[in-house]
Amino acid sequence: MNALVLHNARLILREPGPAISRILSPLALMVLIRPLIRASDPGPGGTVRAVLLPLVLFSMLGLSVVANALLGERIWHTLDRLRATPLRATSLVLGKCAIPLAILLLQQVVVLGVGIAAFGLRPQHALLLAAVGLGWAVTVLSLGAALAAVTTTPSAVSAITDITSLISTALSGALLPLADLPGWARLIAPISPGYWALRSFEAAFSGSVAPALQGCAVLLAMAAAATAFAARRLWR
């Protein structure tokens, strides 16, 4: 698995543009969207939402990073070679996800760091915030692996990623408070990973341990189901 991780690190370093974009683009959106959100919610919650909106959105767009990494093995016809090695299916998924995980965690450090340094955010429970961030990153990568298992082309990955990222972010309540969404949207919102991510991050910022851990538990359950599905499909 270590060789697989190093191989993917070299691929990312050869073309670092997409990774850099995932890290820096949320900052631009955060600066632009903050005055609008603060106008409707001038309290600390408005600033938190202005930071979390681009974080959730661009984290979800990271689905394509791991999905394309796994899909590349099928396009290059190297997946059969990996199947012939002692490498297990779960190890394949974990090996392909390691570098994208590092990118997502760095994205969180940069976005939340700017929010703390520039906008005065003060998380009440830093360790809880780190745990939520890790759980969210693992969930995104697991969903990306599942996406790779059901798609056959990079264009399909891109289309599905764009659509699901926008829908998940909208249903999370980051774009608009849930109270302002239609009733049907509020009803289905809990099926969205973004819904649980936003609530977990907000709870971590306010120091509410129980809601944050509840959200993390739901996210990790989604991650476990997605990883099992991806490993089974990719190894068939």
Keywords:
globular; about 240 residues; mainly alpha; about 0% strand; 11 helices
Stretches where pLDDT is under 50 for at least 5 consecutive residues are none
Strand percentage lies at under 5%
Alpha-beta content class: mainly alpha
Provide mean pLDDT, rounded.
Answer: 83
**What proportion of the residues is helical, as a percent range?**
over 70%
The total strand number stands at 0
- The tally of structural domains comes to 1
Largest sheet: none
Encode the helix/strand succession as letters: HHHHHHHHHHH
Q: Tell me the distance between the termini.
A: 19 Å
Shape: globular
C-alpha Rg (nearest Å): 18 Å
Oligomer: single chain
Q: How many individual helices?
A: 11
Can you describe this structure?
By secondary structure, this protein is an all-alpha fold. The protein contains 11 helices and no strands. It has helices at 2-14, 17-40, 44-61, 63-75, 79-83, 89-119, 126-150, 154-172, 183-188, 193-206, 209-234. Helix 4 runs antiparallel to helix 6 (89-119). 42% of the residues are buried.
List the helices and strands and how they pair.
Blueprint: H1 2-14, H2 17-40, H3 44-61, H4 63-75, H5 79-83, H6 89-119, H7 126-150, H8 154-172, H9 183-188, H10 193-206, H11 209-234
Helix pairs in contact: 1-6, 2-3, 2-6, 3-6, 3-8, 3-10, 4-6, 4-7, 4-8, 6-7, 6-11, 7-10, 7-11, 8-10, 10-11
In short:
This protein is mainly α. Helices cover 82% and strands 0% of the residues.
